[in-house]
Amino acid sequence: MSLIRFRVDEAHEEPAVTLDAFLGQSNATAVRVEPGEDARVLLPFLDRLQLIEIAFPKFRDGRGYSSARILRESGFTGELRAAGDVLLDQVVILRRCGFDALASDHVLDLAKVEEALARFPAVYQKAADAKPPVWALRHG
């Protein structure tokens, strides 16, 4: 599994526990959310979580995008990692939803990831990545 981070601050290396295990033990700082699990149950704990890993068992399962956006828009500032069947084609959308790290089952070339992230400097709507949309830049 290759791990790529979009930001350069300190990495969180503690293994993530399952959501059930996290809810059963209050001292974990890293949790893994599987498809079908409701990420909103983590909202009361966001201030102490350092890593939330969201599983993508198949690239075509998009539920993780919604979980990421909910968590970021609720104030989560720690590392948000997409893990599993993550492809290069998904990198831009993952970043827009708030992910700042990838743990892909595939070998991803860091240069290609950076190229993909830089390909579209302008965006047209607000998202969890806080990039200002073009209309806001033009009209304030």
UniProtKB/TrEMBL annotation:
Pfam families referenced in this protein's UniProt entry, alphabetically: DUF934
Domain of life: Bacteria
Name of the featured protein: DUF934 domain-containing protein
Organism: Sphingomonas natans
